[in-house]
Amino acid sequence: MTSTLDTLPNIGAPATRALHAAGYRTLRDLAGVPRAELAALHGMGPKALGIIQTALEQHDLSLG
Hints:
This is Helix-hairpin-helix domain-containing protein. It comes from Micromonospora yangpuensis. The protein is mainly alpha-helical. The chain contains four helices and no strands. The longest helix has 12 residues. It is globular, with a radius of gyration of 10 Å.
């Protein structure tokens, strides 16, 4: 699975909607964001957070 910084990884519709509602449109937008902040979003679960973290790590980035 290769990710791009210009899109969000495939994390499911509820999690994608939660990120869009919070103003996050790309993987790049999520770099450095505290994991707890994302976990507090309605629709964002541990699986989606893990996928996001893995995608960020492919670019030597991570959640805050």
